[in-house]
From TrEMBL:
GO biological process: anaphase-promoting complex-dependent catabolic process; cell division; protein K11-linked ubiquitination
Residue spans of biased composition, Low complexity class: 96-109
One Pfam assignment: ANAPC4_WD40
Annotated organism of origin: Cladophialophora psammophila CBS 110553
Keyword Signal in annotation: no
Start and end residues of each stretch annotated as Disordered: 28-49, 88-120
Gene3D superfamilies, A to Z: YVTN repeat-like/Quinoprotein amine dehydrogenase (2.130.10.10)
Domain Anaphase-promoting complex subunit 4-like WD40 as annotated: residue spans: 1-101
Name of this protein: Anaphase-promoting complex subunit 4
Cellular component annotations (GO), alphabetically ordered: anaphase-promoting complex; nuclear periphery
Amino acid sequence: MDLVVTVTSKGIVDVWRLNGQKVFGSNFPKDEGKSGGVGGNAGANKSAGGNVRAVAWRRDGQILAIACADGSLSLINTFTGKIAHRISSRNQKPLPSTSSPVPSQTQTPRRSSRIHSFPTSQATSICRTITTIAWTTHFVDPSPTTVRSHLNAPNSTVVLDQILSLRADVDRLLQLKSDLPRELSSIDVEVSLPKLATLPPTGLGADDDVFSSRASVDVLFHGGSNTGSGGVGGVDALLVGSSDADGGCNVQLRVFDSFEIGTVDLKGIFPSGLAIGSALRVMRMESHPFMSTVFLIMEQSPKDEAESSLHLLSLDLSFIPQTGRNLPLVARKVSQLGNLLRYISQVRTQLVAEIKAAFDLPGRFLRNINESLAEGDEDADFIYAAHHLAVTGVCDPKLKDWLVDEVGDRGLKRWENAVGDCLEVVRRMTSECLLPALERSLAVLSRLDGLAKFGPTSSKLGLDERNIKRVTETIDALGILGEDLLLDVIVETREFAAFIKWLKWECEVEAMEEGSERAEEVRESWTGEGELRLVLDYVGGAIKDSRLKKYLLEEGKAQEGGMFASFDDDSDLGFYTEYVKRRASGSRGNSMPTVGELVDRLQRQCDAVFAQIAETLRKSILSSYLLELPRQCNGENMDIRVIPDSIDPSLYRLFVLSKDRQEKAHLQQVVVKLHQGAGKGVQHTMESKSLAIPNVQEIFDAKFVDDDAFLVLAETGSDVKIYWKEISVDGEGSWDVRHVFQRGKIDGVMKPVRLDVNGRVGRRVVAVLDEAGLGYAVLDLDADDSPGDTDSGEDELMTE
């Protein structure tokens, strides 16, 4: 599916097919009460005031990341058009990491540091503005070496894009040998479990109905989102660069869409004194599937309005090669567990809302009759009067007036609908949503528990067997509570059905004239004697205090000391045993936890597990300052690409294309030679060259197409042309014209000023954006490029 995303200044994000058909859209309006800007010269708000600051496609096109001015990040699943995750703008600001100089292998200064964990108590909450976002993909299983050797084989017809495509069968493409133990270990038992049911939409926000459609639930839980562009054994990393009002700059790292590894303070990576008194922002981020290193280009803007400079940094995600194929497995399971927690939490919220709403109307009816009955006898109430009526058949006059005049047939129907529908919703959501979600959670935890028991993996992944057991105990207790809730709601449903049937019959009888023939016929036609016990049980119990409230409502509930110890308390290991013991002893009152309390407890315990995994992985990140780019490079119009050498597997080249700050008709090409040795770090050298295109007056934009070529959008006199050039280290080679915009206009109206290139092999497209943002043209890059078609081909054009 070939898609194009457009963003308006009002925060409207629309996704289109190439033929102009709209697929879906989302609205991200700007909150006028909040400021999304940053202080100093960080430049995060150089765009024209719109709320959306950046968008980025995951390499397989399944996830679209959208960053807003308030620092929030939304991840939209393009299969469903719904927001799968919304990440808050409030994040923890890490303390500066300790770092030490590392001897440089080149003539440029280099600084390295490991990313350490930071205690939460020493962290401060700060609002950041996102300046750029990027997705990177890294091979794990099969390893980068295996993939590269097969791609470079003499008879290979497979290209990298095919392996990185959505749901690619990597083993078949690379013709890898079968590995039965490997295949068995990758089997997910969750696929054999029943599908989770959809939930009613809450209507509270754009991302709260993610579980309301069958497509969204299937994507999240049933295999639709478990594999990314890296295949079963690949890692998709989401990097979010942000700046704050103090001139600081950070990168947040997430893998598998939503599992947060942590935040890296980039300002502390700069050599001593270089970043003092300056505002920093991340301009570009790039990596290669064969590498675990991500390269960042940062802009340093001195506060004295001096000319800004560009710097190259690197983040070595060492945990990717260290953990191997277990990292994708753990990240997927943790993401699944996180989604299940969201699902369970929403089930709990809707159950509580149903209970509170259902008993509001009956409560008002009962208060009115109790007040009326108490006027004659302060000890009388509806329970006493109804019990007396059911046993003796004699109705109190005030109860009769209340039944006939105040409640009536309409009131009874409302009563029946309110309570009956609530009981059915609680039964359905407990049996079809809550209990299946808990069962699926246990299946996910069993895989994490297995990895935690295996020493070599537990130490590298940060899995603690005891913490996993605590989570499992809470889920087991929640499962028992759910089963008790289900049994009680079934009993109460039977009692209420008998009660409302009896009450309708009594209302009909009392509405008739006393002693009439019709009244006697109705009394004789009563067949509910066998259900009278259920009526009395409901009147004497659930009508005053529903059984469901003790499971779902926490109002007036007093916790007993020692029942809910903190997560770090060793006594927590006996929580399930204590729960079962109190349940068996009949302590079903205030000493027993509610669904909400157990869900909150489960969330805290899972957060502790997630935090320990993230801290372990974060410690292995090695950050390095590499070099400063030439002053002629313009960070606002720049593209970067990491290209592996075709012969030396340890050699990579980082190519940078940028407009020249002084010569608008020149293009700056910077080549950073990167050599990965056996030790940590990357050896690097840099060379730059100014490229000039004949007869060009001004270069508007330049973008890489692939590892072999790039495109340049440039003005030549009255026309605007797109040039094609093969990538070379020395910058030599011919410039081929691929498209001409006659008189410098798109469709004779819009002026092309910006390029964007994307797509897979055989279906690569170029989007050319208008200067005023009024529209764009989509060009097929892989169409017949013979000279005769260059100037006459029609653009596929959409306008806003």
